[in-house]
Specification:
Number of domains: 2
Number of strands: 16
Radius of gyration: 18 Å
Distance between the termini: 64 Å
CATH architecture of the largest domain: Sandwich
Order of helices and strands: EEEEEEEEEEEEEEEE
CATH class of the largest domain: Mainly Beta
Length: 231
């Protein structure tokens, strides 16, 4: 038996500092279910024993919420706005399996407090993860990212048509994702590079600012992509 976490409910949500200098340790051990599981990426957990976090966001700023789970923890992130008890779900992330980090990228439509539910995806109402721990971090995109060389290039950028993506590093079983300014995925695919991978991608998105992400099990890299009006 585990004691109920201090942030078991929305009203006692733990505060995430922005930007995130050090990921915050979390656990769902002893957590109760405060709401049903959110349908995310066509999946719905049979139960959602959740813990809660909150952070202050600025209007128009894009944020990346990252949950890095322990080995048997299949993380689900549910982002909400509004006061406890009268909230709207504004985003979720459930793209990978147990042990893989989940990222939720969104642009705040207004300045204020936002809440984050974290729970483990489970196939039956009585299941629990054998490793209930994780870390969570929230930061503006492009701020507080690791100072490492981005291993891919995008050309042309800005673009009004096709783009060429070149990966100059060995990357195995990675995902290539394009997000719009609301954090919604407009494109997703798998990529593997032995250090000289190049592909052409037809851009069908409307004009605006997008974020292209390449992510493997251990790293994630972002490039801003600007889509212009087509001539």
């Amino acid at each position: 038996m585990f004691a109920q976490p201090a942030n078991d409910n929305c009203a006692t949500a733990a505060t995430l500092l922005i930007p995130c200098s050090t990921p915050v340790n979390g656990s769902v051990a002893g957590a109760t279910q405060s709401d049903t599981g959110t349908t995310c990426n066509s999946f719905t957990s049979a139960q959602a024993r959740d813990v809660w976090y909150q952070f202050s966001a600025l209007s128009g700023i894009t944020y990346d919420i990252t949950v890095t789970p322990s080995s048997s923890f299949d993380a689900v992130i549910n982002l909400r706005s509004g006061p406890c008890g009268n909230q709207a779900s504004v985003g979720c992330a459930d793209d990978y399996y147990a042990g893989y980090a989940e990222d939720l990228i969104f642009t705040a439509p207004s300045t204020g407090n936002y809440f984050v539910r974290v729970y483990a995806f489970m196939t039956t109402p009585t299941d629990t993860p054998s490793t209930p721990t994780f870390t969570i971090c929230a930061a503006p995109v492009g701020i507080n990212e690791p100072q490492v060389e981005v291993p891919f290039s995008v050309f042309p950028n800005p673009s009004s048509g096709n783009i060429n993506i070149t990966i100059n590093r060995v990357i195995n079983d990675a995902s290539l994702t394009i997000y719009n300014s609301l954090g919604e995925k407009t494109y997703a695919d798998k990529v593997t590079s032995q250090g000289n991978f190049s592909t052409e991608l037809a851009i069908k998105e409307k004009p605006g600012i997008y974020f292209l992400e390449i992510k493997d099990k251990d790293n994630r890299y972002f490039q801003k992509l600007i889509v212009q009006e087509r001539e």
